Each structure stands twice: as structure tokens, then as C-alpha cells.
Amino acid sequence: xxxxxxxATLIDKNNAxxxxxxxxxxxxxxxxxxxxxITPKEDNxxxxxxxxxxxKGWIDTSVV
Length: 64
Hints:
Elements: E1 2-11, E2 21-27, E3 30-35, E4 44-48, E5 53-55
Parallel strand pairs: 1-4, 1-5
Antiparallel strand pairs: 1-2, 2-3
């Protein structure tokens, strides 16, 4: 399964894309690309939301 998260703000001070809007491609549960703009492939499930933030090590328990 391929998942593409579009226009998420990355929060990671150790990453060159820190505090920037980026796209993240995930294939079979593994991050395969982090770039400014990734063109969706035919089999991508695309997630695009406003005010989406991505960081490592956080779990939002208020989301059901």
C-alpha cells in the first residue's frame, strides 16, 4: 500500500525541512520520500488536510 501525505508541516529540528510544508510518501509502512512536492502515483492513497503537522514520537490520543 502506498500512502501520500500532502502539504504537512514537518516538526523536526534535525531535518532540513523543519517547519516547512512537505509531502511524505509511505510504502508498506516505511517512509520512502520526504520532498517539497511529490506527484501522486496511480496507486497512492492521498491525504490532504489543512493544519496537518508531522513529527516523530508524538501520539495524539484525543483523535478518534
